Amino acid sequence: MIRSLFISVLLLCAVTPFAFAKEAQPTGDDPAVEQRLHKLSQELRCLVCQNETLADSRADLAEDLRREIREQIKAGKSDKEIIEFLTARYGQFILYRPQVTPTTYLLWFGPFVLLLAGLFLLFNYIKQRRDSLPEKPLSADEHRRAEELLASASGKETT
Amino acid sequence: MVKYLIPLALFLVLVVFLAIGLGRDPHEVPSPLINKAAPTFRLQQLKDPSKTFSSEDMRGKVWILNVWASWCVSCRDEHPLLIEYAKTGVVPIYGLNWKDKPEDALGWLADLGDPYVLSATDFDGRIAIDYGVYGAPETYLIDQSGTIRFKQIGALTPDVWSNKILPMVQELNRRGTSR
């Protein structure tokens, strides 16, 4: 029993390096190409696991898309051309930063519109409140008390 | 009084938005390919690799391209429906076998039946990328001029088939013959 366990652990140890070797294999060809691929694919969404970038995803489709991008980089395509290629097939959804088009105006400018609306309401509220407070002058009695308070306060400070 | 109802109204609007958001499937990404020309391809046939199948062969016909794979679980759910629909003969169904081992794919068809006129082998997934495939099964309805008219992401359902695809097929066939 212990022997078979020992053997299986040994086997596992023997297999693991290959597993890592397989994972690391796609990089390495041409560092410049890989760097561009990495930069590009960090801007792109993996469509299978939608909250992961294409750079991080290990889904099969992500691997295929990385291969596609790598080939296009090698073929001398610009980043813009590659992004156009992908959006023509998968739509704007593949971009983490969607282009500014009429359909994405709300997405891009909505928060600022909300911010402005909030500021407008806030100022309106403050103005209204100030206007609603009656500005009545102090009576002679109150005036005297205020003077006294001020005098005693400044007196304390000096001592 | 009205003043106190405003937050409640805003809250209800928020609830409606959230409810709509919950009801939607985030995996359904609208395809930019609808009403665009279907990407052309020429691929080996699954059952007879010595022959090829090209999307150009289908010019002048209304047809369905169904992306499937033996490793795809939802494809298995969808399969009986496809077999049933293929029997009706309303529209020819062609398969695009996506990133599959040919022996696995052939075994799958032998076990579960083959609804396809034929299946083309997209072994390395290049054609699937052209079609914007990101999860099998996906189904495309392509018209006589080679334009994609409809795309179903995920398994077909009887509802989609009889309320979306069949009316479109009939409409396209009618327009095609009257031309």
In short:
The complex is a heterodimer of chains A (159) and B (179). With 159 residues, chain A is an all-alpha fold.
What does this structure look like?
- The complex is a heterodimer of chains A (159) and B (179).
- With 159 residues, chain A is mainly α.
- Chain A has 2 domains: 24-99, Orthogonal Bundle (Helicase, Ruva Protein, domain 3); 104-158, no CATH class.
- Chain A has 6 helices and no strands.
- In chain A, helix 2 (31-41) packs across helix 3 (60-74).
- Chain A is elongated and about 90 Å long.
- The termini of chain A are far apart.
- In chain A, 13% of the residues are buried.
- Chain B is an alpha/beta fold and 179 residues long.
- Chain B has one domain: Glutaredoxin.
- In chain B, the strands form 2 sheets. In chain B, strands 5-4-3-6-7 form a 5-stranded mixed beta sheet. A two-stranded antiparallel ribbon of chain B has the order 1-2.
- In chain B, helix 3 links the parallel strand 4 (93-98) and strand 5.
- The longest helix of chain B is centred in the N-terminal third of the chain and has 22 residues, at 2-23.
- The mean pLDDT of chain B is 90.
- Classes of the chains: A mainly alpha (159), B alpha/beta (179).
- The A-B interface holds A 47-48, 50, 60-61, 64-65, 68, 87-91, 93 and B 26-27, 29-33, 99, 124-126, 128-135.
Keyword list:
heterodimer, A: 159 residues, mainly alpha, Helicase, Ruva Protein, domain 3, 2 domains, 6 helices, 68% helix, B: 179 residues, alpha/beta, Glutaredoxin, five-stranded mixed sheet, two-stranded antiparallel sheet, 5 helices
